[in-house]
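Workshop exercise sheet. Pairs work together: one partner reads the sequence aloud, the other fills in the structure field after running the prediction. Swap roles for the next sheet.
Pair: D.N. / O.F.
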Amino acid sequence: MTVETTPILLDIRQDVALLTAALMDINSVSGNEAALADAVESALRTIPGLQLVRDGDAIIARTELGRPERVILAGHLDTVPLPTVEGSLGTVPATWESGVPGTGTLYGRGATDMKGGVAVQLALAATMFDGGAEPGKDVTFVFYDHEEVEAVKSGLGRLVRNHGHLLEGDFAILLEPTDGTVEGGCNGTSRFEATTVGEAAHSARAWMGSNAIHAAAPILSRLASYEPRTVNVDGLDYRESLNAVKINGGTAGNVIPDRCVVEINYRFAPDKTPDQAEAHVRELLDGFDVVRTDAAAGARPGLNHPAAASFVAAVGAEPKPKYGWTDVARFSELGVPAVNFGPGDPLLAHKDNEHVDADAIRECLRALRSWLADEVE
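Structure field:
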């Protein structure tokens, strides 16, 4: 027998910092987003003028006014797992450092990545039709699951496959944490395995074998001496990185290892395709057995688009590159220029003391509301 549960009620018209805390209080570690998705869906259904589609634990909410342009605001509902260190502040439920809700610093899982951004989305949706004025541009809100895990589980990827036509637009903003600064595009990422093969032998008679771990030394040497490049793409400088991130080899303490695998991660500027990035790695590691195991293209900044330029001007800060991979790349693949913009320091994401300042969330909402007022009313 299926047991129905009552969705948690969210007041999406309350102060956006308090709304952030309410979202954080709903545990939504990847794979456990259902309760939060239910709460978000229920809240959105109270807003007249929005057309909703639910797919698993992902939601698309759209205005359908027939306007000539459409803006997309997107954010993921899931978080990484809770801290395992006893006494960590970055857990669930959220806590206010000041002890006064809505004042000062908010601690807890998802504070920066990215329930502050989701709260801003909901607050914008809640007030979009206030005052009797319909927006002059159509707006699409996207909330999705499974961002913090392997790409094959991505809720946004599933939405692209199942409802791609609903994700068409002229400009997209992903509300990932950027400290309130526009971050254009993102680096691409790829993973490789470089394998060396030896011959097993008893370690007391090592000369009878061939040590595969020792044979991997030149791989590590080339990576250690590699000089990462900084590549200017459409006016933004993207710093690359190429690193060994894992090494595996050996079977026992008295056996010469006959196989060693070095896992490598290459973060490459968005001027390259994954195939071009692979060619670069193969050139560096010429002579070794290299296999690409994963790859995701980056995204060019797209700041030359009129909507992006107007948004950068409204925010007022100099735009920066996004060094990490984000879902702006998925929108880029759809032909939609996209940027990252959200509250919170991205360097705090996933940390045991994850936190965000209440005023940073309010400022993000103010900037977006001001831009949307100029652009869509």
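Discussion prompt: The chain has a mean pLDDT of 92. What would you look at next?
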